[in-house]
Structure formats: structure tokens, C-alpha cells
Amino acid sequence: MSARLPLVVANWKLNGNRDLLAEMLPALTELDASQVETVLCTPFVYLGDEFGDVQKGAQSVASQSSGAFTGEVSAQMLREVGCHYVIIGHSERRAMFGETDNVVAQKVKATLDAGLIPIVCVGETEQERESDATLDVITKQVKSVMDILPSFSDSLVFAYEPVWAIGTGKTATCEQAEEVHYNIRQILMSYNHELAMSTRILYGGSVKPENSKELFSSENIDGGLIGGASLDVESFTAICENAVA
Ligand code: PEP
Question: Can you give the pTM of this predicted structure?
């Protein structure tokens, strides 16, 4: 890991409840925030709760700021309840809710405009990896976001999440992950060298306490986006501790 402050993000998806929140918050408060930044992305309904010192994140956001969009939540509303981060373009949103690269880019823009930090997820399917298309897919996904922004924002976070590794128990090897992370940073450098060097790129896909230390030791892996293991206080805090250099 580099001089970039490690970031570990919990993605609860459609899981969790107030009891888990009450258990998780004090455990995360005990972590040394100067060594590892942690974010808890719960379902929307819990984001109005008091999180104390723990940073709140949403799992999605509307691309519009207001209007007749039943069921949607705007970035401004998220900001109002104290959110700092928003996961955008998770592969489940892309696959199940029809989020295209263009929609993802619009959501990133709306999030930045509201003063929040987008965590932009990119990743290839198993079939794309097997047909050697991984880097092409990643390049297209990253560029579709970068090309729509008026300038490189120092608030951007990217997450490389190979679709075949999410919730499957299969993890990318450190070499596979580092290769993609390195390439993402190279793409970002073509927009702004200095900001690309300070942009955090997280890895996600079946990260557990047992494999996190090795993954996080790679030069271009700056932390993790954690699904299943973020529902267990002991596992998630162990992963956060493993992100400390
Ligand atoms: C995720 O949902 O972003 C994720 C990485 O899930 P899991 O850790 O369960 O693979």
C-alpha cells in the first residue's frame, strides 16, 4: 500500500438491521481513523440514524436532483442526512437495474455536484475475462465516467470488482487484481498525473480477513469494498485492521 490513506467500505446490500448497526458502530469507532478510513453503506432507511463518528455511505443514488422519479433518492438528500460516500455502478445495479455506463457517469456527476464522494465500481464478467477482454471493459467503464466530468475531481474513488468474484467465494489473485488496478491508474494518469496518484482504487470480490492482508499489500490496491464479510463485526473490523500499512 502507498501513502494514500487506506479506505475500507462496507456494502450491506439488502441486508442488516438496527441490531447489527448498534453492534457495528462502536467497533468501527475504535479503529484508528488516522490509519484507515472506514465507511458503512447501509440500506437507505438507516442512513437517517445517528452513526456517531462512523462515515455514512449510500449504495446508489438518483442521477436527477428532483422530480417525478418514484422511489429515487437524490445526492442532495443523502448529503442532508450526513452521507459522505455513494457506491455507484455496482455490478448488481448494472446487471439487475439496467445501469449503463452512461447512467453511471450521470450519477457520478450528480454525486460530485452535491459534494459527495462517488465510489465508482468497474469490473469484468467471467466470460469477458476468459475472452481476454478485461482491460478493454475496464477502460471503457473508467473512461465513460472521466469523459463526462468537467475536470478530474480529487474526490473520486474507484473500486475494481470482478463480477465473477462478487459473493462467489472466488477472489482475484493479487497479480490479477494488481494488473487491473495498475491499468486503472494509468488511464487516470492520462487525465491528470498528480490526481491519479492520489486517487484511491479499492478491490472488491469475496474479500475476507484471510485474504485481505495480501491483497492490500499490493502497490495499487488502496483498500476494499466488502460485501458478505461486512455483515460480521469481527470479520469486517479484522479486514479494516489488515488495511493498516
Ligand atoms: C460487493 O458487493 O461489493 C462485494 C464485493 O461482495 P462480496 O464481498 O460479498 O463478494
Answer: 0.97
Confidence at residue 176, expressed as pLDDT on a 0 to 100 scale: 97
Q: Is 111:88 a contact under the CB 8 Å cutoff?
A: yes
Are 154 and 196 in contact, with CB atoms under 8 Å apart? no
Q: Dihedral angle at the C-alpha atoms of 106, 135, 180, 186, nearest 10 degrees?
A: -70
Give the residue whose CA is nearest to atom 4 of ligand 1.
227
d(CA 176, CA 182): 10
Q: What is the pLDDT of residue 1?
A: 44
Decide if 161 is catalytic: yes
* 14 alpha carbon – ligand 1 mean position (Å): 12
Q: Whose CA is nearest to atom 1 of ligand 1?
A: 227
CATH number for 7-242 (one of 3.30.2290.10, 3.10.180.10, 3.40.50.1370, 3.20.20.70): it is: 3.20.20.70
178 in catalytic set:
no
Cell of 166: 462478487
